[in-house]
Amino acid sequence: MNAPDNRHGVLYVVATPIGNLQDLSPRALQVLRDVALIAAEDTRHSKKLLTHFGIGTALLSLHEHNERDVTASVLQKLSAGMDIALVSDAGTPLISDPGFHLVRAARQAGVRVVPVPGPAALVAALSVAGLPTDRFCFEGFLSSKQTARRQRLQALADQRATLVFYESSHRILASVADMADIFGGDREATLARELTKTFETVLGGSLASLLVQLQSDSQQQKGEFVVMVHGAAPQAKSVVDAASEQVLTVLLSELPLKQAAALAAKITGLSRNALYERGLQLKE
Ligand code: SAM
Fold this sequence. Notes:
Blueprint: E1 10-14, H1 26-34, E2 37-40, H2 43-52, E3 58-61, H3 67-79, E4 84-87, H4 100-108, E5 112-116, H5 121-129, E6 136-141, H6 146-156, E7 162-167, H7 172-183, E8 188-193, E9 201-206, H8 207-216, E10 225-229, H9 242-252, H10 257-268, H11 272-283
Helix pairs in contact: 3-4, 6-7, 7-8, 9-10, 9-11, 10-11
The protein binds S-adenosylmethionine (SAM).
The site of S-adenosylmethionine has 24 residues, from helix 5, strand 7, strand 8 and strand 10.
């Protein structure tokens, strides 16, 4: 990775609103006004935002299908000293949105990449979910194919951190049904829908109860969702693990059960009773 070169232009990664236009920060407004060019996921969509704020900066299309091709020409413009802003349709670019290839290539080319932070649906959702936020695992979108989706959920079943998913109206019901099935209906979750928009709704409860709410009210299936699921409860550790059982077995070959259990308890730190019980089973 090269150190930023001051002769290059700057690539600004600018977060835009996820619904409420008032969430565009004054700094984002200034940057979008001042740059020579804005690389946008959907130029027509971003044009509306810019028009709303009276910004006439030129736009260039950069979406998931052309990003690799467009990156080279954007880098050339940056090398020529142009300042460029990257925006996506909503929220923070690169968060389940295009921009990764451009940002990576720009950094490798020694271009200064500057964040202009603002809305991101996952952070807004976590901030109101009432679920632990000290550790969370952002999973983005699950697969649209049920087998792949269920496999992914299965792999996450023991994850202790809060799980965060993006979901669309088409699949919200199927995804929550799979989560209830795989994580268990009593696992706590929060559905954040249409944040910062007219129909903003934040529903909390068990996965089973959320599934019933979705099924019984089709309005609740509409819009954009962040699904957050409480992390798995700590696994009840097998009382006598394999290594401790080995210690107990060796001692049992030389000592009576009571003494073997007492000594094994001193060596392993496990409870003498648990080791005594296990010893009884081993002797049988
Ligand atoms: N880059 C965006 C961000 O920073 O959050 C995410 C873009 S991703 C293509 C779109 C998904 O984000 C939606 O399907 C939904 O899961 C989530 N999302 C975006 N806006 C939302 C909102 N207002 N309320 C709830 N979820 C939203």
